[in-house]
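Archive entry: two folds, one per protein. Generate the first.
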Amino acid sequence: MTQDPYEILGVSRDASADDVKKAYRKLARQLHPDVNPDPDTQERFKDVSRAYEVLSDPQKRAAYDRGGDAFSQGFGGAGQGFSFTDIMDAFFGGGAAAGGASRGPRSRARRGQDALVRLDVALADAAFGVTRDLKVDTALTCEACHGEGTAPGTSPIACETCHGQGEVAVVQRSFLGEIRTLRPCAACRGYGSIIPDPCRECSGDGRVRSRRTLTVKIPAGVDHGTRVQLAGQGEVGPGGGPAGDLYVEIHVEPHPTFTRHGNDLHTTVSLPMTAAALGTQLTLPLLEADLASSAETPDGEKPVTTYDLEVRPGTQSGSEQVKRGFGVPSLRGGRGDLVVSIKVDTPTRLDPRQEELLRELAAIRGEESPDGQNEAPTRGMFGRLRDAFQG
């Protein structure tokens, strides 16, 4: 068996560090005991690992190129042993490529978390949009240290345990010899540096909690539970890292006369029995937000604040009328409808003259002793549409 590490790995003497690593990965995939348990193959795998230990170390490689004995530099288990991390890289690729953490010290700066706040708005404001000032309590960059976490005039120093690498080697014995694995340094928690004099304002975290006021523009058409995203307005990350996002969750307060179903508005109008029987013309107010909204009207015209409702003679209680385009603006354009339900009020108290007139009317109509009849429940417009689609 040749003792030349270049020949063992099958690379030339002027091969780059990347070429050496590629050759080792290729052989490790073929010869690893988990793939090929043959005893001869295991011995060859040990030789390949030892050869890579020499050629991957610039000092050992330079010593061998000057005529030194490669095996005395670490072959045969006398040195530090080969890196278990390199074996894992051979099978699964580099740390970052395989989804693991990249080697070397990790940054103190990390992205902050997203924040969620609740905003109560009136139905009109949710339907037609509003701009509100919102007070939020989040982590902000420390002004004393500008996110560095160090006291003024000081700076982090390199960790003496890992010498600024952020990780330390741990050697363990196995049937393959000594296996060296890399673990985050416990002294510096993997940062590669230590803050000897932390900032007093933020205790070295680089951020402090503070209350601030944001101006939030709520678009027209949002509904209960809608979340408005404010990019970069969430929690500032540790070490002065970038801020997360702020989500404003809309909670719509009940309205005394209007309710919302999708982009449609629903309301109920009460009429006297006589008005329902004879018919009438009503002028009723729209949702209050239209008072300040002139965008829906042509230039030069006043905003529409009311709508006309024509009640035909003989209108029944529970009937509905639909006013097209008087509902809630959609986030994707267009606008819903206003659905008006008619409620006919029957008088509960009559004076003698009123009672006399009603009895005369009943006599004229032949309704003094009416025969009651059972009928199917009255269906609203949407119920009738649903029945029509269902056949």
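Generate the second and append.
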Amino acid sequence: MAWTWRYEDVQGQPVDGPHEAFSSQSDAESWLGQTWRDLLADGVVTASLVEEDRVEYRMSLLPREQ
């Protein structure tokens, strides 16, 4: 099974981004934790973790308002 990320912009439209494949959910999440700032700078505001064709979850990359 491969874990990958899909990316969306602020309008919910797909955004091209790194097409990394990971052998575990943990590896995929660690990678995103290290690269989310770069993705955000490239216009990605939402990332969806996908296992094969199933979306595990979606998350915003925008900082929470304080």
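Annotation attached to the second fold: The first helix runs from residue 25 to 41. The two ends are 38 Å apart (CA to CA).
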